[in-house]
Amino acid sequence: MARVSEWDWGRPEELSERMDAFLVDGAACDKLEEVARPPYDRTTLGDLGVTGVEFAAWKSHHPAALASDVVPLRSPDAAAVPGRVYRVDGEALFAALDICEPLPFADGSVDWVYAEHLIEHVSLTAGTAWLTEVRRILAPGGVLRLTTPDLATYVDGYRSGDTFFSRHRGRMRAAGLGPPMPARRAFMFNQLFYLYGHRWLYDYEELAYALVSAGFPDTAIERRAFRDGARPDVAELDRVLRNDESIYVEATVPV
């Protein structure tokens, strides 16, 4: 595979090819052991030591998480069958799940759900349907923590004369994530919409709208900060690399 730094920002299809190759390489593991099949109720998940689900992750750093991604993990001998739970390399748990499909969990079966930079990859309709499913599977008092690129931050960056954009370009370059990003403000704004498979972008009001549409009370929705939340163990999942561009929002199921 060509090095990530070899793509041309002026040719978005090259970035798409690199991302596809990354998914193929990143979804590899040494061993997959099937441990459960759907549907999953609270007792079944509890027996597995699972209290919550982290979406858009092949492996979670939370000790009681079920990691999930639409791209199945694969070992030299097998590939994860969508919906089934696997123990990965003798440690973490994983299930291949598509957020555009009903989730294979019983009502009120988990205490928390976490998703970082996921909801922007589907349409508003699909995102709201997924949030409705998340609301259903959360137990009373359960917490959903969402992070996604903040559209307002990018609008402010465009208007402010590039303060945020220059910092973000420097951060991406320091992390080794590709060649230097073009300094043009229009490029920095457009890439958020048209690269990376993004389908719908959110500010706080739009995210709150989707959450209310999904059944969360508006009084139970709160804007949070990086690694600050109702459950410190879940907020700790926030990645440093994305904290400059992200909005953090939590929604709680009423008791």
Report on the architecture of this protein.
The chain is an alpha/beta fold and 255 residues long. Helix 3 links the parallel strand 6 and strand 7. The model is unreliable at 1-5 (pLDDT under 50). It has a single domain, classed as Rossmann fold, CATH 3.40.50. It contains 8 helices and 9 strands. The N and C termini lie far apart (50 Å). The longest helix has 15 residues, at 12-26. Strands 1-4-5-3-2-6-7-9-8 form a 9-stranded mixed beta sheet. It is 31% helix and 21% strand. Helix 4 packs antiparallel against helix 6 (185-194). The chain has helices at 12-26, 42-47, 124-137, 151-159, 163-174, 185-194, 204-213, 232-235, and strands at residues 32-36, 52-55, 65-69, 85-88, 92-96, 110-116, 138-149, 221-224, 246-252. Residues 95-144 form the Methyltransferase type domain. It holds the Pfam family Methyltransf_11.
Give a short synopsis of this structure.
This protein has 255 residues and is an alpha/beta fold. The protein has helices spanning 12-26, 42-47, 124-137, 151-159, 163-174, 185-194, 204-213, 232-235; strands at 32-36, 52-55, 65-69, 85-88, 92-96, 110-116, 138-149, 221-224, 246-252. 31% of the residues lie in helices and 21% in strands.
H/E series: HEHEEEEEHEHHHHEHE
What is the helix fraction of residues, given as a range?
25-40%
How many extended strands? Answer: 9
Strand content: 15-25%
CATH topology: Rossmann fold
Protein name: Methyltransferase type 11 domain-containing protein
InterPro entries: Methyltransf_11 (IPR013216), SAM-dependent_MTases_sf (IPR029063)
Pfam families: Methyltransf_11
Domain Methyltransferase type: 95-144
